[in-house]
Write a structure and sequence with these properties.
The chain is α/β, with parallel strands linked by helices. It has two domains: 183 residues, D-Maltodextrin-Binding Protein, domain 2, CATH 3.40.190.10; 139 residues, D-Maltodextrin-Binding Protein, domain 2, CATH 3.40.190.10. The chain has 13 helices and eleven strands.
Length: 335
């Protein structure tokens, strides 16, 4: 009986710690004899062309690609670092903490700007700003907002039009959403005024960009705030229905980052994949099939507004600071 109880407890603990994958897919090279596992917060459909391009020049490899939310990527890798070779996430602060806590392998020989890498262990390879994406139909008779201040004005003057029609990240669940929110709050008090107005209009909360874009496409919402523009651009089927706005007041530009696990049993192959990501090789084939904007193509304005890979990123990961921030956010947005 004692062993049966222990077995039940063990199974329950395993179930409690299990992750709900958004997707899992095996990409096979032409002569794949070795497999590396990649855990990522980027949707398979968005990332698949990059993997395919890599396997074209590395046919001896296969890639197991696992997709989860940025917060789940962080927690799952922390629990089971031996199960994954490469970690890719848009939540730069959580990635930096993994490196700081000793989970990453050092990959030497990559020539990279200081602001886009950390300790030769964490590397940014795409760059894109937080965007406001709108459903054009909702703004047929209104001026399209080009800044957060203009968004505040349009929401204040048209509350019934936008009640229940705004979407944004649930920062309690989304690592990227939390990163964008804390960076917004550091940049200007305008953020909190906007959150209060969005809260009064019963804003819908989401885990990820893809879900917000989908609800924009089917008219469930009219505005998606702080969404990744690449996900909107990838939806060519609704290109005529939506518009992507880069706020003019204080842009926040995120780098999608990658690191190799120091527990990887395939560090050489994993490092090859990371080097491929940090090169511009993956942008040279198949042209329009790449929806992720490479870091090398970033404008000077985007580079200046980039969230730098530096220790200050982890300030809001302090448990007390996080608890305080989320409480403020709940008071403003959940009314």
């Amino acid at each position: 009986m004692r062993y049966l109880i222990l077995l039940i407890i063990s199974l329950f603990a395993s179930h409690a710690n299990s992750i709900e994958w958004e997707d899992k897919q095996l990409f096979e090279g032409a002569i794949g004899s070795q497999t590396i596992s990649v855990i990522s917060s980027t949707d398979t459909a968005i990332f698949a062309p990059i993997i395919t391009s890599f396997l074209t020049i590395n046919p001896e490899l296969n890639i197991n690609y696992y997709v989860a939310s940025s917060a789940d990527v962080y927690e799952e890798f922390q629990r089971n670092p031996q199960d994954y070779d490469v970690v890719i996430s848009s939540a730069m602060d959580l990635q930096l903490k993994l490196v700081n806590d000793g989970f990453s392998a050092r990959i030497e020989g990559i020539s990279y700007p200081d602001w886009a890498q950390w300790r030769e262990s964490l590397f940014g390879f795409t760059m894109e700003p937080a965007s406001i994406v709108i459903n054009k139909k909702a703004f047929e008779t209104l001026k399209v907002p080009r800044s957060r201040q203009e968004m505040i004005r349009v929401l204040r003057t048209n509350p019934e039009l936008f009640r229940g029609k705004i979407g944004s990240y649930d920062v309690r669940q989304s690592g990227l959403g939390y990163l964008f929110a804390t960076q917004d709050a550091r940049a200007s008090e305008t953020y909190w005024r906007l959150m209060e107005i969005m809260g009064s209009l019963e804003t819908r909360l989401y885990c990820c960009s893809g879900s917000m874009i989908e609800d924009l496409s089917n008219n469930t919402i009219s505005i998606a705030y702080n969404v990744l523009g690449s996900y909107a651009q990838a939806r060519t089927d609704i290109a005529d229905k939506i518009e992507i706005i880069l706020p003019s007041d204080f842009p926040n530009t995120m780098m999608r980052t990658a690191m190799v696990s120091k527990h990887s049993l395939s560090i050489r192959s994993s490092a090859s994949f990371l080097r491929f990501l940090t090169s511009s090789e993956w942008t040279k084939a198949e042209g329009d099939s790449y929806h992720l904007p490479p870091l090398q193509a970033a404008s000077q304005n985007e580079q200046r507004s980039a969230i730098a890979l530096e220790p200050g990123l982890m300030i809001f990961l302090d448990k007390l600071k996080r608890k305080t921030f989320i409480k403020e956010w709940e008071n403003a947005l959940i009314q």
